[in-house]
Amino acid sequence: MKTSQQVLAELDSLYAAGWHSNIFFVDDNFIGSKSFLKTQLLPALIEWRKYKKGCVFYTEASINLADDPELLAMMARAGFDSSLSG
Predict the structure, then answer these.
(1) What are phi and psi of 59, to 5 degrees?
(2) Is 62 helix (H, G, I), strand (E, B) or coil?
(3) Cβ atoms of 58 and 25 closer than 8 Å
(4) Nearest-angstrom CA–CA distance, 27 and 1
(5) Burial class, 49, CB count within 10 angstroms (exposed 0-12 / middle 13-18 / buried 19+)
(6) Which residues pair with 85 in a beta bridge?
């Protein structure tokens, strides 16, 4: 699993290269560690987006993601606007 810093470094590279469009987070276990998402990755993405335009995020996740309204709200604030159900 990548650290938040690794994810942000990759996003910064894409953004600096001029990519300001959709970004698909490819991870079969994206919500496998809800604690990591809620305490580290999503807060980092929310902060990152404050200074960036565009870059809509989406991912593939199981439907049980909907069982956690707090996580859904954080994902929306972080810029995830759609998900493919697996």
Answers:
(1) -150, 175
(2) coil
(3) yes
(4) 9
(5) middle
(6) 61
**What's the predicted TM-score (pTM) here?**
0.86
Q: 42-80, pLDDT tens digit by residue?
A: 999 999 999 888 889 988 877 777 888 999 999 999 999
CA distance 31 to 18: 28
Cα distance between residue 70 and residue 22, in whole Å: 23
Tell me the domain boundaries of the chain.
Answer: 4-85
Please calculate the CA angle 83-20-49 and round it to the nearest 5 degrees. 70
Residue in the block written with tokens 């580290």:
40
* Residues 49/79, Cβ–Cβ less than 8 Å: yes
Which residues partner with 73 through β-bridges? none
The span from the CA of 86 to the CA of 68, in Å, is 17
User: pLDDT tens-digit profile of 5-28?
Assistant: 999 999 999 999 999 999 998 876
